[in-house]
Each structure stands twice: as C-alpha cells, then as structure tokens.
Amino acid sequence: MPESHIVVESKKYMWDGETYPGASEAEAAKKKYEEDGFDVQIADKEGEIAVYTRRVVTEIVVDGAPV
Description:
Layout: E1 5-8, E2 11-20, H1 23-35, E3 39-45, E4 48-54
Antiparallel strand pairs: 1-2, 2-4, 3-4
C-alpha cells in the first residue's frame, strides 16, 4: 500500500486512495485533478502507481455569526 502522504520540495501531498494499474490511468487521474485546481504528483513505488494531490487554500468561508 502506498504512503498516505509524501513531501516534495517542502510541500505535502496526500494520496488519493487509489492504486493505478498503469501510467496511462495515473496520467488520466492527474489531468482530472489538475482541471479541478490541484497540484499533482505521481509516484511509482515497487510497481504500485499512486497519485498524490494538494491544493492551496485561496478562500476561507465562515458560516454563522461571529462569537
């Protein structure tokens, strides 16, 4: 099983929970995540291909009245 997270250039990426049978499937997942605004890394460890994602928070929405 892949690691739950990896750190690349001091940035933490979280595993998407899937292992991919080949590079083409992982690249397709990467493209979808990038279209949704994620930064993506693909890691191949011992034949298990995993996709790791991260997204920088650009807006914080708080519901309710301040206390």
